[in-house]
Input
Amino acid sequence: MALDRDLDLLSAAPFFEGLSAEALKLLAFSADPRDFADGERVFSAGETAEGGMVVIEGRIDLVDEHAQPPKVVERLGPGSLIGELALIVDTRRPVSARAVGRARVLSIRRALFRRMLEGYPDIAALLEQRLAERLTRLAPQIRRIGETLGSLDES
Output
């Protein structure tokens, strides 16, 4: 059954780890399934991201079209979450995406995700903790990049 498969894939995505079965069902029921043909554009770099997507079937390539020639930066398969940050805040797509073969995604709008967080405050606290941990791990890398850029300015 498609719903069971969708629930399994949602629960396997690390971002949704720890969400209750009830919350996952809400997402699965309320998300919009979208189908793409081989080579079809899923979204373009610079577009406003209205939310995230979970790959249900097939593959999606994330493509840096500014590179010459355009470069596939990541190939995502079933269970992959695209645009997790867009579930929480307004953002733009940093790269483009296109289907590799036939692909299907569940599109989760930010408004839906925010309603779920309002209904399940324990999930909001869990996600806040995860994001804080991630930012803490990234801080040293960001500092090094800043130092490198600072030394380039001095040259």
Remarks:
- Residues 121-154 form the longest helix (34 residues).
- The chain has four helices and eight strands.
